[in-house]
Amino acid sequence: LKSETVFAGKDITLRRDTVQLPSGEPFEHDIAERPEEITVIPQISEKELIMVKQFRRGVQEILLELPGGKISAGERAEEAARRELEEETGYQAGEMRELREIFFAPGWSTIKKTFFLARELKAAKNPHPADLDENIEVVKLTFEEALAKAESGEIKDAKSILGLSLVKKFFASS
Amino acid sequence: LKSETVFAGKDITLRRDTVQLPSGEPFEHDIAERPEEITVIPQISEKELIMVKQFRRGVQEILLELPGGKISAGERAEEAARRELEEETGYQAGEMRELREIFFAPGWSTIKKTFFLARELKAAKNPHPADLDENIEVVKLTFEEALAKAESGEIKDAKSILGLSLVKKFFASS
To answer: Label partner for B125 (CA 20 to 30 A): which of A52, A171, B19, B66?
Structure first.
């Protein structure tokens, strides 16, 4: 019936859609619009990957996660993946392979993440600086260690657990 | 430095936190607060589960997903899982086993989902009616069919792909 913006924040816009129910009654839904995001699985050797550890404000905890972030206006998904990888880990990727897109909250948000496998990593000479508000520790671990942390609950977020599950076939098992 | 509510909607509250950067500058983050949610994997036989198909407003698509929804005020997670299972599928569970909690957008939202495996299912005699705005088709499929759909991209949302990955050991393979 109608769709209006009820709040426009820096990274979140709230849209209110009014729809007609089968009964004829109007019904309101709030939808959180967010820029699209990317998640990167940085493979640094046959058996190892890079993850990042940082304080996350949504949940008020330090989390061990795959790197990633928002796609900026005018940027392609792969460009965002290369930029975030360099900003968060200091590495550049020779190969950046798109794996797939996944919805994260389809009932109430547009949010979608595109997953990339980054390979042929080398340390950037003058890495892009991280965002001002980010304070990130880079962690190197084997793929098997990462899977064990996802299983045990030490890795707690959906994109990291999902990202690991998408790349099993690319890592050599020990 | 400060934390204020900038928008209070029906199911989404936007909180703006102002923090001090290491440089001394203030920095603002918008955080979307949402009620906690549950996701249910309803196992209906040794090899089969139930999923639901419905139009999802966040992404404007019909999706095949695991059932689930918000925990209501005053409700425990398991109660919400039993209620949503009955509302969305018409089944009641003899056993409702909590598996684990997973964060879904730790950078910008409090959102967390608790996953449950539902077993000993039987059709409810007078099922709770679904929410007014829901129009849900119940789908029975084998666990292997569901995994193949997650792999192929026919199942597109994070909670469903993750939920399936949590319960592999409970299903007999064919």
So the answer is: B66
